[in-house]
UniProtKB/TrEMBL annotation:
Function: The pyruvate dehydrogenase complex catalyzes the overall conversion of pyruvate to acetyl-CoA and CO(2). It contains multiple copies of three enzymatic components: pyruvate dehydrogenase (E1), dihydrolipoamide acetyltransferase (E2) and lipoamide dehydrogenase (E3).
Protein name listed in UniProt: Acetyltransferase component of pyruvate dehydrogenase complex
Peripheral subunit-binding (PSBD) domain sequence ranges: 256-293
One Gene Ontology biological process: pyruvate decarboxylation to acetyl-CoA
Cofactor mode of binding and number, as noted: Binds 2 lipoyl cofactors covalently.
Originating organism: Cellulophaga baltica
CC annotations in GO: pyruvate dehydrogenase complex
PANTHER family xrefs: DIHYDROLIPOAMIDE ACETYL/SUCCINYL-TRANSFERASE-RELATED, DIHYDROLIPOYLLYSINE-RESIDUE ACETYLTRANSFERASE COMPONENT OF PYRUVATE DEHYDROGENASE COMPLEX, MITOCHONDRIAL-RELATED
Record PROSITE patterns: BIOTINYL_LIPOYL, LIPOYL, PSBD
A GO molecular-function annotation: dihydrolipoyllysine-residue acetyltransferase activity
Annotated EC: 2.3.1.12
Biased composition (Low complexity): 107-120, 217-227
Xref: Pfam families: 2-oxoacid_dh (PF00198), Biotin_lipoyl (PF00364), E3_binding (PF02817)
Gene3D superfamilies tied to this protein: 2.40.50.100, Chloramphenicol acetyltransferase-like domain (3.30.559.10), E3-binding domain (4.10.320.10)
Length: 544
């Protein structure tokens, strides 16, 4: 069955996008994860990948043309499938309206029954859906709401902070009015396009909107559930507040608990049966769970001595585990690295580099005013220069083609609290050592405070991962696709080495290059490492 793909919202402020380039043509086979097109947003040009498999049957927006978000972008389906109905539906909404009017005149009873199940969205009421804030975002988690139900909202106000797979971003309102409804609570996740909030005139009844299938904006399935849930809860516990959740314990006893308290109890492994609620009608609230102290368990009785021997004292304790919900960043790291490891045939090459000259050169460079260069900065610069000499390593595998990147942009892996991000130094080969150092420090700082933008994490052609600062001497990394290679950098180690036939104290560093064998052959990877070693061991060549 054919799938209609609409222009996505790739940034929080994007209202329309321009197709910079199509990477697939009509008739091409498309696999899940293939890049369909490069789309220019208000912030950056981003790759848009397919979440479906099939044949590209139709392109709705040509290269260089722009269109609003949710406009028909493409259709994917089975080869030879008839898509005329989809195209007519997308290009002739007026004809559809006329057709509906004719149907309504011919079948008044049917329309009347449908009208009873549907409701028009009142004027001034806006239904806000979970936005797609990054090119890979499939769902978002509400980190915090900055507005609550009943608050006045002005256009441009920040409604909430939404955690995506890449960063926590502020989501602003494009509308003015009163916040009438919140569909996803703090700490909860929702897929893209699910109802997030409703804004409109104060006093507007949103129950009818949530219980019905609005005729023009809200999806049918997105709003029927809240009303049904409310009905069920009101029957089971008429005296409980609207924001109380009902939990049924193993013994059949009903427990009333707020959504946030239930979430915290789940995270802490607290059995709600053991918690005394302080809210209305014994409802368990957040503070009840946070202040809950389990009753101490009675110690096991000491074993009686048997015979002449004394009893063996065994440790007494309680087994304990905790399931922590994976955040969006961790989910995407798992997905992307899993895809890379199991689709790209990795192989690894190792070399050991003499760092004596590099250490001496770094001391001289850092003696200059307002200059601070790390060994990692020197490695990044050396990689950029080596990639210029070995373009086969600066490639991407695209199935039927291999893409040669004529620009060089090195990604630098940065560990953050929730996982790993890779900010990108654009056109790294054109940067000096001090520029690289300043840029890496700036981007790493943004990464740790979750201030990186999607544009600052897109477009790498090669990646460097350094664990030397943790004392790790050597390791292997998983390729950061669509790159063809990633360099793992170990610690600088002082040890005995042989120079000119004599054993002396030297400083060495181990490098491991992981390559995608589909694009980089073993000899090519080895030659790249030879060039890389020459630059690092002779830093003066990188200053020319």
């Amino acid at each position: 069955m054919a799938i209609v793909i609409n222009m996505p919202r790739l940034s929080d402020t994007m209202e329309e996008g321009t197709v910079a380039k199509w990477l697939k043509n009509v008739g091409d086979k498309v696999e899940e994860g293939d890049i369909l097109a490069e789309i220019e947003t208000d912030k950056a040009t981003m790759e848009f990948e397919s979440f479906n498999e099939g044949t590209l049957l139709h392109i709705g927006i040509q290269e260089g043309d722009g269109a609003p978000v949710d406009t028909l972008l493409a259709i994917i389906g089975e080869e030879g499938e008839d898509i005329s109905a989809l195209l007519n539906g997308a290009s002739a909404p007026e004809a559809k309206a006329e057709e509906k009017q004719e149907e309504s005149a011919a079948e008044p009873e049917t329309v009347a029954s449908e009208a009873s199940e549907s409701v028009e969205i009142p004027e001034g009421v806006e239904i806000i859906k979970m936005p797609r804030l990054s090119d890979t975002m499939e769902e978002g988690t509400i980190a915090s709401w900055l507005k609550k139900v009943g608050d006045k909202v002005e256009e441009g106000d920040i409604l909430a902070e939404i955690e995506t797979d890449k960063a926590t971003m502020e989501f602003e309102s494009f509308y003015s009015g009163t916040l009438l409804y919140i569909g996803t609570q703090e700490g909860e996740s929702s897929p893209v396009d699910v109802i997030l909030a409703i804004i409109g005139p104060e006093g507007t009844d949103v129950d009818a909107l949530l219980a019905s299938k609005p005729s023009s904006a809200a999806p049918k399935a997105a709003a029927a559930a809240p009303k049904e849930t409310a009905k069920t809860e009101s029957k089971a516990a008429p005296s409980a507040p609207a924001e109380t959740k009902e939990v049924v314990a193993n013994d059949g006893q009903r427990i009333f608990v707020s959504p946030l308290a239930k979430k915290i109890a789940s995270e802490k492994g607290v059995n709600l049966r053991d918690v005394t609620g302080s809210g209305d009608n014994g409802r368990i609230v957040k503070k009840d769970v946070e202040n809950f102290v389990p009753a101490p368990k009675a110690a096991a009785p000491a074993a009686k001595a048997s015979g002449a021997g004394a009893p063996l004292a065994l440790p007494v304790g309680e087994e304990s585990v905790e399931d922590v919900k994976n955040n969006q960043m961790r989910k995407v790291i798992a997905k992307r690295l899993g895809e890379s490891k199991f689709t790209a045939p990795h192989y690894y090459l190792n070399i050991e580099v003499d760092m004596d000259n590099a250490k001496a050169s770094r001391v001289q460079i850092n003696s200059l005013p307002d200059t601070k260069v790390s060994f990692n900065d020197m490695v990044v610069k050396a990689c950029a220069m080596a990639l210029r000499k070995h373009p086969q390593v600066n490639t991407s595998w695209n199935g039927d083609t291999t893409r040669y990147n004529h620009h060089i942009s090195v990604g630098v892996a940065v560990a953050v609290e929730d996982g790993l991000v890779v900010p990108v130094l654009k056109f790294t080969d054109q940067m000096g050592l001090s520029q690289i150092g300043a840029s890496v420090r700036d981007l790493a700082g943004k990464a740790r405070t979750k201030k990186l933008t999607p544009a600052e994490m897109e477009g790498s052609t090669f990646t460097v991962s350094n664990l030397g600062m943790f004392g790790v001497e050597s390791f292997t990394s998983i390729i950061n696709q669509p790159n063809s290679a990633i360099l793992s950098v170990g610690a600088i180690v002082e040890k005995p080495v042989v120079k000119d036939g004599q054993i002396v104290v030297g400083n060495t560093m181990k490098l491991t290059l992981a390559c995608d064998h589909r694009t980089v052959d073993g000899a090519t990877g080895a030659q790249f490492l030879q060039t890389l070693r020459a630059f690092i061991e002779n830093p003066v060549t990188m200053l020319a």
